[in-house]
UniProtKB/TrEMBL annotation, chains A, B:
Cofactor section: pyridoxal 5'-phosphate
Keywords: Aminotransferase, Pyridoxal phosphate, Transferase
Coiled coil: none
GO function terms (MF aspect): transaminase activity
Residues of the Aminotransferase class I/classII large domain: 44-385
The keyword S-adenosyl-L-methionine appears for this protein: no
PANTHER family, per database record: AMINOTRANSFERASE (PTHR42790), KYNURENINE_ALPHA-AMINOADIPATE AMINOTRANSFERASE, MITOCHONDRIAL (PTHR42790:SF19)
Protein name: PLP-dependent aminotransferase family protein
Pfam families: Aminotran_1_2
Species in which this protein is naturally found: Sporolactobacillus mangiferae
């Protein structure tokens, strides 16, 4: 049998993190590799109540086919949350997604012909790279510093890539770096997008998980021409298992997203949508998010302390005020893959930084997750990581 | 603002049926347009028990991120169901999908470069056309008769389209015609696929809903070279709201499906998967399917009777032994769009047949659904349809 796959099949492999997660199931390994929320914080009892209420009140509708756009009361609840962060909108400009990952896939599908350019932070979210690659684009990477994507570099990239389809950015507690784009740059990004007539895809899964510093308005809040497409999710503030994300965009974009979502999976799980809406009706999600933030803050403090005390002093690292990740840079003398192998022998794991570069992989950094583990395990894992690193001394 | 969408955005509009469903929400309209299961048969109480059991026993895991492949006990339960219909397999060759619609999308994504050929029945499932069109293929339609896709026509089409990527077929109670491919043709289809070295995508959402005649083994049961990809769903036998489908295929295909599903939505709703698995553990799904079959059989009988008694005698129509649809052909003198408009005024609706042709739309047929409505409403709706048609006499 000869099988001729589409050319795009050459570009899409499995995600390094998700494949690593499978290997790391062994209980003796302390894994900082995933990007998982703390499961002990999931509001299991409240969700159980919401499930029963949904099935009692509207069982037949909750289990039937439904509209692609999504359950209206859930969209209305999201409208309120969008307004609270400075993005006034309405339910017509919201579409429920099967996780925000689907928003990445649909954005690629809607905008990218083979050879088109995507502009993104360097490094950037590996599953976004994977989603976009299915549509065979070129990637133009823009350097970051501690204040987010560099705007001088962005302008140079826009000049060098006329007709680029969109700028992909994760402004808050970026994955993988944990860095946040400062206020002034958010305004500048919109101004540059207006000037160079390009769409912005703002991916904001972590914005609500800010445990220090001052909240910044989304890039979309500065949008004057309806060119910012905003993507977020319930995965980090409620529960990722339900696969519920959303996209907020202007009508012409929205029409495309709805059509292509219809072709992709008809609609997202109706029952999950109704359970989420019922949960939001019966509970205070913001109070729940406060609990998440307190726990993640404490874990971040421990991990930062361990970086200072267990790892060699010369390592540069980010200092996130929210989200789930810290980015650690290595001296040129240490290859991150070799370090990863050494760490695995030491029963500790991370994601090596090379996975986060769409073009040439850099071997000089790794991502640590602190949300998914007790403080004791963080301490023990960081000790093991420090031991592995000390062998390079 | 200038927006340059991908070229594929020109090809994908919203599905006619799904858009019609929204219009047809008015209670005075009797709609035979949808393809919805009977919601009064959804096992709401059993699902409520399953939800509680899942949350009590494994709440944290049910709400967390999980593997792309899907929940293993659910895949194992599907293995048993596949074996029961003549397709021995194992969990490694099963992938849980976000509805079988996702399987259509992923198949397009994996196999189709722009300009590649998809071979399909004429007419065929409109949402499959929509899913494939996103990848800009050509469609080669193969004529059907009452015994399914015609094999002489298929061979001619294979000769005329060397390098066609796959044959898309719905062998059981086809959507939209309700026709079933006879046993001999299933074997012939595999033999032709082997001879012409082409993949078969067997879409089988309705096979389990057979209420008359003898069950036929899936096309995949005759697969000698691992070239048949089998797609099915829980939507018609359990509940569509959960968006749970599956694909069964050989390892090389499976690797691609897993990679591309990862890029599309990471994984399907874990909670829904665990609830389905728990339902299957605690209940007898086959007994439940018996109930569905009894109800649909009665509704089909009523609708067939009404076709004979309320509609003009010269109309050709299919006589399905299962599934959800009957296909009615019109004389050349009646344009189906005009009839549709006349019917809407009469508060009755169907899907006009033209939606089911990927190339040139034929205006000479329509699809009737009988699963979603009481016998009384079927009678009343068919009376209204007969009145609309009688104006052409």
């Amino acid at each position: 049998m000869t099988v001729n796959y589409a050319k795009r099949a050459e570009h899409v492999g499995r995600s390094a993190t998700r494949e690593i997660l499978k290997v790391l199931d062994r209980p003796e390994i302390i894994s900082f590799a995933g990007g998982l929320p703390a499961p002990e914080l999931f509001p299991v009892e409240a969700i159980k109540e919401a499930c029963s209420a949904v099935l009692d009140e509207a069982g037949e509708q909750a289990l039937q086919y439904s509209t692609t756009e999504g359950f209206l009361p859930l969209r209305k609840a999201i409208v309120k949350r969008m307004e609270a962060v400075g993005v006034p909108t309405d339910a017509d400009h919201l579409l429920i997604l099967t996780g925000s990952q689907q928003g990445l896939d649909l954005t690629g599908k809607i905008f990218l012909d083979k050879g088109d350019t995507v502009i993104c932070e360097s490094p950037t979210y590996l599953a976004a790279i994977q989603a976009f690659k299915a549509y065979e684009p070129r990637f133009a990477e823009v350097a970051m510093d501690d204040f987010g994507m560099r705007m001088d570099e962005l302008e140079r990239t826009l000049q060098q890539n006329p007709g680029a389809k969109f700028i992909y950015t994760i402004p808050d507690f970026q994955n993988p770096t944990g860095r946040t784009m400062v206020l002034e740059r958010r305004k500048q990004m919109v101004a540059l997008a207006n000037q160079y007539d390009v769409v912005i895809l703002e991916d904001n899964p972590y914005g609500a998980i800010r445990f220090a510093g001052e909240a910044l308005p989304p890039v979309k809040s500065f949008d004057t021409e309806g060119r910012v497409i905003y993507l977020s999710t319930f995965s980090k503030i409620f529960a990722p298992g339900f696969r519920l994300g959303w996209i907020c965009a202007e009508s012409d974009f929205m029409n495309r997203y709805v059509s292509f979502k219809q072709a992709s999976d008809l609609h997202s799980d109706v029952f999950a949508q109704r359970v989420a809406a019922k949960y939001l009706e019966l509970n205070d999600l913001d109070a729940h998010i406060q609990k998440i933030k307190a726990v993640y803050h404490a874990r971040r403090e421990i991990m930062m302390h361990c970086i200072e005390t267990c790892l060699p002093g010369h390592l540069k690292h980010s200092a996130p005020e929210g989200g789930l990740f810290i980015w650690v840079e290595l001296p040129e003398s240490i290859n991150v893959q070799a370090l990863f192998d050494r760490c695995l022998k030491n029963n500790v794991a991370f994601v090596s930084g090379d996975s986060f570069y769409p073009n040439e992989a850099k071997q000089n950094a790794f991502r640590l997750n602190y949300s998914n583990m007790s403080e004791e395990r963080i301490k023990e894992g960081m000790k093991r990581l420090g031991e592995a690193l000390s062998e390079y001394a």
